[in-house]
Fold this protein.
Amino acid sequence: MEVNMNNQLIDQISSTSKTALLTIYAHSIESQSEQPILSDPTAVELTKALSEPFSRSEVRLFKKLADHKLNRQLVYHIALRAKKYDSYADSFVKDHPDGTIINLGCGLDARYHRLTQKPKLFLDIDLEPMIAIKRELVEQTKEYRMIGQSIFDSAWLEEVLHLEGPKLFIAEGLFMYLSPDELNPWLIRLADDFSGSYLLFETVVEKYTRGFNKKMVEFKLRKEFGVSGDVSYHFGLKQSDDLESLSPHFKLIEDWSYFDENHPKVGLLNLMGKIKSLRYVQWTVFYRIE
């Protein structure tokens, strides 16, 4: 596997899309640790291919990733989240073997390759610069396809609408970076058009999308993670069932926090999950569309 920096693909990745690189490197780092939370050999191979060109880059984030320097708690959080989302996906396929999984804002995530239960069709959706890199690294098949479009582009959604069987839409680490002015109408359309399907996504508490809390998020993204540009949190929930007010078709099934796993690697930080205001800072919601 090789990525040629001269083709400018990596340089074309948007600031927000660069956050997805944190995810694939977290998967790789954890996969190579003792008693890993997540086993992701594809992530290990992908990061090996990326680290050499990243090491020659002047971008601070790329250099940081090439050195595999990520906060350990961030790595555990991302790995636990991926494992849980994989579990949701496996359960969906078991219950709906004729269904389709749509991985929104997928980045370089190798979810399809991690699943023990393969769906009839798995679609990775992301902006074209990210998908162009992924196409160089990962082979597509009849059952696994990549689409280089914004989630707000109607073309792919129309295609999915005409596929048989229920759908599972997954948005892992995506929605918080999107504008509510764009995302809310898109969610309403999803609720109107995809009865019998499911939506799984990570969210942040709404107060982190405004004021001082928003500024703290922006500072952390720049200072700790090395993500430059206008990346920030824009969309959040006040409580898990908020989408039920957006559309009567959304019905909350459950929510989940990585503190719920009480994993020994997280250590004393697991105690934060016992405090409601801390458990619901960044968490996951799972909806059925009726």
Notes: Residues 5-73 form one domain. The mean pLDDT is 93. The chain has eleven helices and seven strands.
